[in-house]
Amino acid sequence: TMPNIKLYYFDGEGRAEIIRLILAQSDIRYEDERIQVEDWPSLRKRLAGKTSLEQAKADQMAEYLLSDLLNQYIQYLLEDDEFKKAEKWQECFEDSIPFHLEKFEIILIQNGGEYFTGNLTYADIAFYRFANIVKNYFNFEEAAQKYPQLTALYQRVASLPSIVKWEETKPINQVPF
Question: HSE-up of 90 (CA within 13 Å, CB side)?
Fold first, then answer.
């Protein structure tokens, strides 16, 4: 039997429309939960930051992690040509990620050392997620010494009760990202 699917998105087509089209073509039933624009601020504030500045910082961090850096990692994974793959390894794991980790460490320190914006936001959870995706490509002991604040952030997020529960109960993922 198919699981109950709920698709949450704004009351418009946007990025969710491709999912709706695929579900329609596949004749898969789902609940199309539409978020009204006026309801978004209260939903977003749960983990987006308490102020406009925190929200902007969270957006910036999450965008770097889950768009820019993750896309670079995926390009490396999907590259078939061994020469190009070696170049992408260099760009991703020896240039881009270490460069950004250094910047993230500084941002974390500038905001009190506990969370990227000073309070827990989805940017901190995005960092935890990104670290889990690429952890097999890093020497974590070396990274922990070089980036102690990021290491502490990772551990802090990993120990949140809801995150612990999710990690213990989530389905096994067959896709490496």
Answer: 6
